[in-house]
# Entry
Amino acid sequence: MLIGTSRYAHDDLPDQPVVRNNLTDLAAVLTDPEFGVLPAEHCMVVHDETNLTFIGRQLRSAASAATDLLLVYYAGHGCLHPRLHTLHLALPETDPDDLGFSAVAIDVLKDSIARSPARSKVLIIDSCFSGRAFTGHLASTADRVRAQIAVRGTYTFASAAGNTAAVVMPGERHTAFTGRLLRLLRHGVPDGPAELDLELLYGRIDQLMLAESLPRPERFVVGDIGRLVLAGNRAYVPEPPPGSDAERPDVGLRWAVFTRAPGTMSDYGVVASGADLPGDLAATIRDHLGGVPDPGAFGQAGALPWISFSGCTAVDGEPLLAVAVTTASDARDGLGRVITATRFYALPWQTAADTGLTWTGLYRTIRDIRFADVDAAPAELDAHDRVAVPLHRMAPPVLSESDLSRWATVAAAIVDGRSVVIVVDALDPPSVDERLRLLDAIGALMPYGSRARLRAGTWADHRAQHRLQLHFGLRAGPGQIAVAWHDDEFEIPVGPRGRMHLDRLRAMRAAGATAADLVAELAGQREFRDVALPVAQPAPPPQDEAHDEAHDEAPPVAPSLSLAADPGPSAPSHRRTAVTPGETAALVADVTLASIRNGFAAALLAAVGLLVFSFGIGSASGTAVLTGLGLLAGAVLMTVVVNAVKRARARRRFVAGTAFVMDVTPQPTVDAVFARCQLQLVVNAPGVAAVAVRVRDPRVPVDRWPEVGAQLPVLVRQGDPRRVLVMWDRVQTHDEAAAS
# Structure
């Protein structure tokens, strides 16, 4: 039974909107068909319930019905009675001055749990135990709370000590404690056992909270149930029996070091390398870098190490599988700055394919290689100037049904030649092991041979030019598809090859194949494949006009998203509109009409005609009057002719098209009719094929603010695709889109 309160009527109890996410996501994890421990019909969620009697009845009913496991979870404010110091769990209408009649007393909760016939009982409380009644009782309150929440035969999690406030981190989707619990349940514990028991989860959560200087959780165990399994380990990868040469053969790795010499200001480059590597080795290594690493970015999403993988070709033409690891060193350059080093390793592609080597396995193969100095060769080399290490062969990753539904379309987009960034929270990023697991999960949903040319990495900066096709980051760069790390569902436009790949997966599923069957089938497809297709190119420089500051060229990213092919039924259709040639001509005429009317020659002719006409009227000269009228008529005729010519030129210079929204600044929350907006677009129009453009529009209607994935009607300047005009009056408002 999952109970949570996110909104409160009393001023002393601030709202906690993230509690709703706690309940929804925790229920999904606990009832997962493959890794969860509860059937969906046995999981009850009570959110923002005001009726105390109803909660009591539901709790007693669940407790009496449970025979194997009873799990009770509460998220919200915890309050202590000001006189009795008894703990109460707050509800939406809780009054801190009248807790007995407006909140759930912990004694009542304990009694219901203790009376349950369930063999195992788990109580999880994610709340602050201090509240307004803590003043003057800090020393004794912690002990009182510990005594109160301990329940006979129950394993109890508490998000914080009795005199410590629980935390909600800014920008995070969950409370700090539940968010880290969910991280472990949803993504697993790398190098951990196949199942996650309560003691293991507590230890890992405690480590995470301590590392981030967050309030450390507490646990209370009454009875011997610490080994109770709460979920399967999604990151568990079975390994072959240790010591088996057949299972872990030695391999001679080719190597190179990309850094700068300590104490100097020399450029970063290849300072040491072995033999039989790619010809342009420095360029190959740079292709693995997702930007300029920051050695001081501790605890941030872009912190080192960065790990990237790709296929490449040796100077003699032999295909290779490579990994590059960028780390910070203890050495400093001539200005005293920390030097980073990228260690590059490669092995024959055929060796990797024959063993089904995963990216995680390749990283574990090389992670313990030692170097004497930042710019030195590996400490141990064989007679062929290679690093001899046992190949860390691992079984394919184990995917749940939710993993399959979430990441199959991402794999299809990669197969289709698209570039995908997995967007993470800056303050709550996944660990390196979690990122490697997800990269392998997506890779497992493609033919294994696709890794021969696919570039994937644990991090890339959206502001940098790089060649990674699948990576983690804070946001998408130009022409990239962005999917959120925490989202359970997302739609991705997929082209013909991607749709064909998804159709094959669906056909296998329809024939009864499980997620494991799909992974095994794709892992067996080890023939050399190339996932790179024609990609979007940066917009060419303007040919006949000065650069418009409001429309900047997006920096080139290769490979990037191509929309030249029809995205098909899976492409987003939110607020899609059509633009006819007639509408295009009318809009362009409207835009140019003001400048046409102000044509200098026509205005001068009209002024002279008016002057002559006035002179003729004053002097009673018929000739002057007729001359003035003729000049005025000529001015009108000139305006008509110039207008027609300009309109014809405008029709030739602008074409109607569509723009696919890859990224957009957040919609303003303040009341406003118009606001400034920056968009990353991929533009398609006659003569303009899949051009990545950045547009800054100072006047976007807030009620028509676009979303990522929307297609917008645009006018595109021929010869200068950066000159894009979004026709906002032809975009549906949010209300119109909802109604349709």
DSSP finds 17 helices and 27 strands in the chain. The longest helix spans residues 622-653. The CA atoms of residues 592 and 674 lie 23 Å apart. The longest strand covers residues 319-332.
